[in-house]
Amino acid sequence: MPGNRDTTLFLFLAALLLLCPLGAARAAVTVSTVSGLEQAIGQANRGGDPTILLREGTYALNGVYLRITRAGITVRSANGDREKVVLDGNYQTTEIFQIVASDVTIADLTLKRARDHPIHLIATADHDVRGVVIDNVHILDPGQQAIKINPDSSRSHTVDLGTVRRCRIELTDAGRAFVWNRNGSCYTGGVDAHQATGWTIEDNVISGFWCSGGLAEHGVHFWSDSRDTLVQRNLIIDCDRGIGFGLGTSGHHGGIIRNNMIYHPQDHGVSDVGIGLESAPGALVCNNTIFFDHSYPNAIEYRFTATTDVLIANNLTNRAITSRNNATADLRANRTDAQPSWFVDPAAGNLHLAWPVPGVVDSGVAVSGLADDFDRNSRPQGVGTDIGADEYTSTPPPPFPPPATGRTLPFTLLLLGNRP
Questions:
Q1: How far is CA 157 from CA 73, 147, 211, in A?
Q2: What is the tens place of the pLDDT at every residue in 80-105?
């Protein structure tokens, strides 16, 4: 029957797609040694296979760094498990990946102990860099910032329109000791960007960027005339400073900070603000939950006269939301009196609502573009939007902290309806 022939043909073609990858987009080389990885990246830079898959194991780089100069290269683990493929710089490798090309993807890997930046993106004197994706990467104990984004030296070319998603970025006691012994300061942080436009930082867990002898960098920081950054659904735990747009007069334009959870325990020596806007006109800060057990008085600050046309709405905190240095903002439906009993487990950073708190649930204002919450649940669930990062439902929240998810599936598998 025609229907049976159609079905048989479909199944045959589906199997063929799985067994016989088509075209250069499916080309890949698999490596299992540092020298093999160096060689594969060198060949990819010269026009060879653009996709490089790493077998399970620890790759002791010991001074080797990997520079990507050709657009469209992907480096990821072969099995999609980031914890089983480890690139270890052992504080001898300055930068594990240096990326000076567009549309590069780094995914499903662990990068640890780079002396400076595990991932450094740099524009060059003759071209911009666009569309880099850093996905499901565990970055451990960077010597400086975990992900650094820079224009070229003349500031005429920039690194824009990139994405950092589903990553775990952390500094442990061992990494902290290295940073302090090396610098005598706390020059380290999570994602740090200069003059970058249109980046998305989402669904990451960033933790441990503090130092007892001084103030560490932010978990997420875009400044030096960066603009239109989207920072959403991130969990930031135990960082001296959470999310920053701008610093002093080196500002940020536009951008959105929403649906983030930020928790800091007792002081380690120096602590600062959860969300800071400094010379950051046009920013939107909405539906974040910030809870401090340390003594810093402000959860959100907006600073300097250049900070205008700012909306700060529906944020749930236990510290003040404060103007400094003559900044102005429109404040709507924020709560600054949050109590520990309102949350599932604040000491673990789990700032999901434990119960339908009056004056929080259904008590926010409508904000353009706000369609979901920290867990991607749709908003609103009731008669109005809830204040804070969590839209309360009677269904228990998902596992916490958010687990790493599987790799992005090949296009042929997506066509056949498979799910991670």
A1: 20, 18, 34
A2: 999 999 999 999 999 999 999 999 99
Query: How do strand 284-286 and strand 256-258 relate by DSSP bridges?
Result: parallel
Is position 8 within any domain? no
Q: Which of 412, 408, 418 is nearest to 82 (CA)?
A: 408
Q: With 60 as the cut, is the pLDDT of residue 111 above it? A: yes
Q: Around Cβ 326, how many Cβ atoms within 10 Å?
A: 11
- Sign of the torsion formed by the C-alpha atoms of 141, 145, 149 and 155: negative
- Write out the DSSP string of 317-345: ESSEEEEETT---EEES-B----GGGEEE
Residue 206: inside a domain, yes or no?
yes
Residue corresponding to tokens 């989402």: 202
How many domains does one find in the chain? 1
Residue 87 dihedral angles phi and psi, to the nearest 5°: -105, 110
Structural domain span for residue 314: 56-415
Three-state DSSP state, 268: coil
CA distance 61 to 49: 22
Is 308 inside any structural domain?
A: yes
CA distance 6 to 13: 11
Q: What percent of the chain has pLDDT over 90?
A: 82
Task: List Cα–Cα distances, 342 to 182, 315, 379, in angstroms.
Answer: 41, 14, 19
Whole-angstrom distance, CA of residue 242 vs CA of residue 249 = 19
Question: From residue 226, how far is each of 29, 151, 249 by CA, in Å?
Answer: 36, 10, 12
Question: Is 19 buried (19+), middle (13-18) or exposed (0-12) by CB count in 10 A?
Answer: exposed
pLDDT digit string, tens, across residues 142-174: 999 999 999 999 999 999 999 999 999 999 999
The answer as to whether 282 is a domain residue is: yes
Euclidean distance between CA atoms 173 and 211, whole angstroms: 9
Closest CA to 263 of 352, 375, 349: 349
CA 353 to chain centre: 23
In angstroms, rounded to a whole number, what is the distance separating the alpha carbons of residues 11 and 46?
38
Say how many residues make up the chain: 420
Handedness of CA 179, 183, 189, 194 (dihedral sign): negative
The residue assigned the tokens 């240096």 is 98
How far is Cα 189 from Cα 209, in angstroms, rounded to an integer? Answer: 6
